[in-house]
Amino acid sequence: MNLTRRALVKGGAGAVAAGTLAGCLDDVGTANAELDAGYAAFFTLRDWTQQVSGDAIDFEDPVGTGEAGHGWQPSGDLTRDIADAGAFVYLDTPEFSWAQDVAATLEADYDTVAVIDGLADLDADDLLDWEHEVDAGDHDHDHDAENESHEEHDHDDHDHGDEDGHDDHDHDPSSIDPHVWLDPVLAQDIVDTIATGLADADPDNAETYEDNADAYIEELDALDQTFEELIDAADRRVAVFAGHDSFTYLQERYGFEIHTPTGVSPQEQPSQSAISETIDLIDEEGIDTILYGPFEAPDGAYPQLVETILDDSQATDAKALTHLSGTLAEWEDEEWGYRKQMEEINLPALREAVGAQ
């Protein structure tokens, strides 16, 4: 779905809901004439949208601290709150089905609500399937081409495509890995889309959104170069993650592999043979530091799988690697957004895991 400002359906249509979470909108007043508040569907989107909007719009993340954005379910009043605020930024993917439902209700039932899909302008080839196999030996990252592409971007000429924004999509939507935000290059395109959507919704501040997006895209480009340099300096192109693999986009971008005994599903329990294979890999590759998901250990203790691997392998240390769909209280206290969490958590963890000291 692209940015839409559809007329309110008359004759009691305010009671139409998209699923039980949408609630009833028939007693919600007309949206604010000035766009000064909004919602973004999870931590990273909220951070990017706030970077673009600056002081013009105050965006809120409905997902609580310590919770991951995908798989989350809201309360029944959230659609009403978003409608009152006037803007909603989300990713149109089944992993955020609640956000798809909210967006559908807003588009059908409410006028002057800006609904912005961050994926709207990505090419079909940019999106990876859950079962995508990364070839760590096939790495051809052209920074000059990437930089030229983003330096020439123009928000006014940004083509949103057809009404649905995905007419060239040849993926089964349910098979798409949604963690596209972990790729700092594709992140630049999503930030660009957010800026264009906000400018369309609030033309008076269009120049502000464009300037802020340009500045933040420069930061994301610098982050991309840091990742490139890290992997180029690595002793090995493989790391081990004791949890479900959310990092395929990162691996695909920089040409390295994150091995995990559990696969992509958070509910999957690793088999003993998969754990044994992982331990063998650690010992063969001389891996000293393994990675794990911090949302599985919010109190600072290692998850049980990490403890098992440390006990039975030659690895001696473990570092958190965050998927950035949420944030933890200590990071929130530090006011670490997407870029700072990449720099303070993910980059140091990967540096140790692949031996790029």
TrEMBL record:
What ranges does the record give for the region Disordered, renumbered to this chain? 136-179
Q: Which GO terms describe its biological process?
A: metal ion transport
The reply to whether Signal figures as a keyword in the UniProt entry is yes
Comp. bias regions, Basic and acidic residues? 136-174
Regions annotated as coiled coil: 206-233
Q: Which terms are listed as keywords in the entry?
A: Coiled coil, Signal, Transport
For this protein, the record's InterPro entries field holds: Bact_metal-bind_prot9, TAT_signal, ZnuA-like
Q: Cross-referenced Gene3D superfamilies, in alphabetical order?
A: Nitrogenase molybdenum iron protein domain
Similarity comment: family membership: Belongs to the bacterial solute-binding protein 9 family.
Stated name of the protein: Zinc transport system substrate-binding protein
Which organism is this protein's natural source?
Natrinema salifodinae
